[in-house]
Design brief:
The complex is a heterodimer of chains A (about 475) and B (about 550). Chain A has one domain. Chain A has 19 helices and four strands. Chain A is mainly alpha-helical and about 475 residues long. Chain B has about 550 residues and is mainly alpha-helical. Among the domains of chain B are: about 210 residues, no CATH class; about 50 residues, no CATH class. In chain B, about 60% of the residues are buried.
């Protein structure tokens, strides 16, 4: 029987994504209707849009796994949870952006729509198993981010950051497309679910094509997730971009890459003899390199940039463990770690955004001194984030590491677990240094170089800090909710 | 009054929070009074909990079990037994004493006491947690307050010292975390259930099934855990953080030296011995060697120090070596001596650190060459110092003697029999450490308290006021109670220590287990041969031959 040409579509599956996109358009219209420099309506519109998207996502929790739009969009618990993490990340970034944008004199009108559309791209990457849809999502995510990275036009560093990100990003897209073409050639389709079957065919030509294609895909995604050696852009871009954009890039941008990588490795389980050693090596180098180089940094945004590289390495360990044995090792670890990483990273960038002041921003480590006098709440939150990034109890960072250790040992990846442990020790040094600097009670008091501690920033910090601790204490209900089982 | 154990564990943390919230209390004196009140209540709660204890059983008491993370087999599981009994007392007692001894002039007193109270919760939690993840959480929670206590209230090199302390400890414990996860996974392999509760894991170990096909893994996981405890204890060669940390943390030093280091030796008793019997037996010579090197090396380095706080730090390395020596002798006398030494070291070192801290606070230096002739100027201070010192040296009638003597005796006994590949050489060499201990302490005493008066100008040269000496009096009291009537301390420890020992040295199916039914708990020990420890499950024979100080087999008493 001939199928109808119109594919079966379930609009509710893309509704959250559409909601965020519409919120972005709405924010842009608001800017045109009420053209003033800083319009708080835009902020509210964005937040409400994200909130509704989150509600729509949560409504779909626990529904049957289903594909739609000719199999290009998949609705499963993993995709929904990762989309929710993206929405949370975007919402938290927007929540602390307002004050920062004012201090840096960045206009609101372009910032919010771009950030929302960027989120759309990230969400698309989370809910597809189709290489082309993934690519479109990645480009939507990236193009908005290229603009956002350079949105502070008065700063030279911002321009450098944007250009660097754009050039390297475009290069990575090339890798990705070439990889997609190879995989298409091998499997005859754009879906990644065909990879395993094609590999089983044992045809050496197909296998060579697949191995090559997969390698290129991993390079392209590794760039977004900033794995060593594709991380070169990360510290410079993180340092140069506005702090809130950096927070967004480090969390939502990476979440999307991890989500697709997760699916890719799962479909390529049959090929693990090829990718597992290579990715294992990459994970080792990423963890060690990120943490060791972070020790030598003088700028707090660069420190966090390198720290985000090492966390990408930690997550990669969990991804490898799952990809090696998807039946036994579930997605909970990845979801939990990405959520916890999002909360603690955005929280710490929210605190750092206090360093922006009257259009200037200096983010040297020494500029953090005296934060305790300025705002005890911010300093205490920063300590919580550092403790969590380091992986100490009672925070979600600790639990995330525990879960990764568990997955790694279950997948017989003891060497990776040991490297993770060693590199965490290295990381303790610079996280502690930041924690000490913000908690100093005898810092310089004569000149206070911090922005006004606006309630929006304070709320974001406190919410993230509370969430980081609550995510450990209430691990059980949280994972039950996220995996809806 | 029936006080739940959790109330004791969490009360100080709540106190810490309240202290921060009571913003209207501005005066330093009032803040201190509130902190004293909180710590006194904590000590009271501790005694109330322990007053219900049954010293005849080695099973955990006051156990509270709340489901926490079900799908991972993690529970909020707390309880105490004879091994943690005196350590909780040491924690609450020393915290109270430290709060009382802290001068009003300390900057940011509110924050300081907040961190001290938080630390108290973390330490109590470590001593009472029976779930490995919960234990690890409390164990690591001590790092954060300690880091800030050193880095914000420390001496000139505080940053380096604080970072060194945390990184060293963290380095040890992150491998412990890997070991803990591996242990839970092993439990899953054996029983099909992921479980972090040491009660369940040990029950499986006791039946012999747990390690049946994983002897190599046992040694590996044992070392992963032991590494973390060795750094904390500290044991040679992981000791190099202590010098800096003690010297740079005048105010927080006493907590660290008297209570926190016990978390390491406690870890060996609570986790390593019961859970890794074969590994403990095969690695015992390594640990005896480490303990002996620590005893001698610590004493020798202490002799070379001119700073009093550094000297006490290295003397701690030496004295904690005796704890390890006693524990890994795997003989009953040695183990009970080692456990006792934990408590007595906490008391004597706490006393010395508080007294030295007083001097440093008044005169800004801990260099013993800067002082001289203090005995004439400060007779009361000198007297207290002398008593603390004698306890530390291990003079008979002080508590230091009992612990070190029993540890040495146990080490000699096992060594003389050649059990577990040990030799009496360890005991003989360690005996030398006692002599060396006398050398450095007496040299210091001579330099500081005799000879010509060196510091003439200074804020005040009066003797320590009696009110400030009060904490020291309390500690001196314990030095002699421990020395003259040690059975008071042995009583609650005996059953648990013996059971722990049998868990480590018995054959696979004859090991006691924390899951035994209370009415079946019977331990019989033949002391003349440490390997002959028997364990009788049935309720037919309810006899324990408890080793009193001189360990007569004839002395038997019924236990329940």
């Amino acid at each position: 029987m001939i199928q109808t040409l119109m594919p079966n579509t379930n609009w509710s599956m893309v509704l959250p994504i559409a909601m965020v996109a519409v919120a972005g358009i709405f924010a842009l219209i608001l800017e045109m209707l009420f053209p003033k420099r800083d319009n708080n309506l835009i902020v509210w519109a964005s937040q409400i849009g994200l909130l509704m998207a989150a509600a729509m996502l949560i409504r779909q929790f626990g529904l049957e796994t289903e594909t739609s739009f000719a199999g290009t969009i998949i609705r499963d618990q993993f995709g929904l949870a990762m989309q929710l993490v993206c929405v949370i990340g975007a919402s938290a970034t927007i929540a602390f952006s307002e004050g920062y944008l004012r201090e840096k004199k960045i206009p609101f009108g372009e910032f919010y729509p771009l950030m929302l559309w960027s989120t759309v791209g990230a969400m698309m990457m989370c809910c597809t198993e189709n290489l082309l849809v993934m690519f479109v999502g990645l480009e939507i995510l990236s193009i908005a981010l290229y603009v956002l990275a350079g949105i502070s036009r008065v700063e030279e560093k911002g321009e450098e950051s944007a250009l660097k990100y754009f050039l390297l990003g475009a290069f990575a897209s090339g890798f990705l497309l070439y990889g997609i073409a190879n995989v298409y050639g091998a499997t005859g389709g754009l879906g990644i679910e065909g990879i395993g079957l094609a590999w089983e065919s044992k045809d050496p030509n197909v296998q060579a094509l697949l191995a090559f294609g997969l390698a290129l895909l991993l390079i392209g995604l590794g760039f977004k997730a900033s794995f060593f050696p594709f991380h070169q852009w990360t510290p410079d871009v993180y340092q140069g971009a506005p702090t809130n954009v950096t927070a967004f890039m480090a969390t939502v941008g990476k979440t999307a890459a991890f989500a697709f990588l997760f699916r890719l490795l799962e479909s390529a389980t049959a090929m693990q003899a090829i990718w597992a050693p290579a990715l294992g090596l990459i994970a080792v180098l990423t963890m060690l390199y990120g943490n060791i180089v972070a020790l030598m940094q003088k700028d707090v945004k660069r420190v966090l940039g390198y720290s985000s590289i090492s966390h990408a390495g930690y997550i990669l360990v969990a991804l490898i463990a799952h990809g090696k044995n998807p039946g036994r090792i579930g997605p909970e670890t990845v979801i939990y770690y990405v959520l916890s990483y999002t909360l603690m990273t955005i929280g710490s960038f929210a605190v750092i955004s206090l360093l922006a002041h009257d259009g200037k921003e200096s983010t040297g480590l020494d500029d953090l001194r005296g934060l305790w006098q300025r705002s005890r709440v911010a300093a205490a939150c920063m300590v919580v984030f550092m403790v969590s990034l380091m992986g100490l109890p009672p925070t979600s960072g600790f639990f995330g590491k525990l879960l990764i250790f568990q997955d790694a040992l279950n997948a017989d990846l003891l060497p990776l677990a040991v490297v993770l442990a060693v590199s965490s020790i290295v990381s303790a040094a610079y996280y502690l240094n930041i924690a000490r600097l913000v908690a100093l009670t005898d810092g310089p008091t004569e000149e206070i170089s911090f922005a006004r501690f606006r309630p929006a920033i304070q709320n974001t910090c406190v919410l993230c800090a509370v969430a980081v601790i609550a995510a450990m204490v209430f691990y059980s209900p949280l994972t039950q909710f996220l995996s809806s089982r | 009054m029936n006080v739940p154990l959790s109330a004791l564990i969490w009360f100080p943390a709540i106190g810490a929070l309240l202290l921060q919230l009571l913003g209207f209390v501005k005066k330093e004196k009032d803040i201190k009074s509130i902190a004293v009140l909180f710590t006194t209540v904590a000590l009271g709660l501790n005694l109330a909990v322990l007053s219900k204890s049954n010293s005849g059983t080695y099973l955990f008491q006051a156990v509270e079990s709340v489901s926490w993370i079900e799908n991972l087999g993690i529970r909020y599981l707390v309880g105490y037994d004879g091994i943690s009994f005196w350590l909780t007392v040491l924690t609450t007692l020393m915290t109270l004493i430290i709060v009382v001894a802290t001068p009003d002039t300390t900057k940011n007193l509110r924050g300081f006491f907040g961190l001290v109270l938080l630390l108290e919760t973390a330490m109590l939690g470590s001593f009472c947690a029976l779930d490995l993840v919960l234990f690890f959480s409390f164990f690591e929670l001590t790092l954060i307050p300690m880091f800030f206590l050193v880095s914000l209230w420390g001496g000139p090199n505080r940053n380096k010292a604080a970072a060194k302390f945390v990184i060293y400890t963290f380095a040890g414990s992150i491998f412990m975390l890997v070991g803990i996860v591996a242990l839970a996974i092993q439990h899953q392999k054996v029983t099909g259930q992921l479980d972090f509760s040491i009660i369940n894991i040990q029950a499986s170990v006791a039946s012999g099934k747990f390690w049946a096909n994983a002897l190599q893994a046992q040694t590996l996981i044992f070392w992963a855990l032991a590494l973390g405890f060795m750094v904390k204890t500290p044991a040679f060669p992981f000791h190099s953080w202590i010098g800096d940390t003690y010297a740079e943390s005048p105010t927080a030093g006493p907590i660290l030296s008297s209570v926190m280091v016990k978390m390491g030796s406690y870890g060996f008793l609570r986790f390593c011995l019961p859970l890794f019997p074969e590994a403990v037996q095969s690695q015992a010579p390594v640990f005896m060697a480490i303990a002996t090197i620590g005893i001698l090396y610590g004493a020798l380095v202490a002799i070379a120090q001119t700073d009093m706080r550094r000297m006490i730090a290295y003397s701690s390395l030496s004295h904690m070596g005796f704890v390890l020596l006693g524990i890994f002798s795997l003989s009953y006398k040695g183990m009970i001596g080692g456990s006792f030494q934990q408590f007595s070291h906490g008391i004597t070192t706490g006393l010395l650190v508080i007294l030295v801290g007083y001097l440093v606070e008044k005169h800004g230096t801990g260099d013993m060459n800067a002082f001289g002739g203090l005995k004439a100027k400060m007779p009361l201070f000198a007297g207290l110092f002398l008593l603390g010192m004698l306890g530390s040296v291990g003079l008979p009638t002080t508590n230091g003697f009992i612990g070190e003597f029993l540890a040495l005796m146990g080490a000699y006994e096992t060594g003389a029999r050649g059990l577990f590949g040990l030799s009496p050489g360890f005991a003989i060499a360690s005996g030398l450490g006692v002599v060396l201990g006398a050398v450095y302490l007496f040299v210091m005493f001579q330099k500081v308290f005799y000879g010509p008066v060196k510091v003439t100008e200074g804020p005040d040269w009066q003797d320590i006021p009696v009110s400030k000496a009060l904490p020291a009096f309390v500690l001196v009291f314990f030095v002699f109670v421990g020395g003259l009537y040690p059975n008071l301390f042995f009583g609650p420890m005996e059953a648990s220590t013996q059971a722990t020992r049998l868990m480590a040295i018995s054959e696979a199916t004859k090991r006691p287990s924390w899951k035994d039914k209370p009415e079946e708990v019977t331990i019989r020990v033949a002391l003349e041969d440490p390997m002959q420890g028997q364990y009788i499950r049935a309720g037919s024979e309810r006899l324990i031959s408890s080793a009193r100080l001189h360990g007569n087999v004839d002395e038997k008493r019924e236990i329940r």
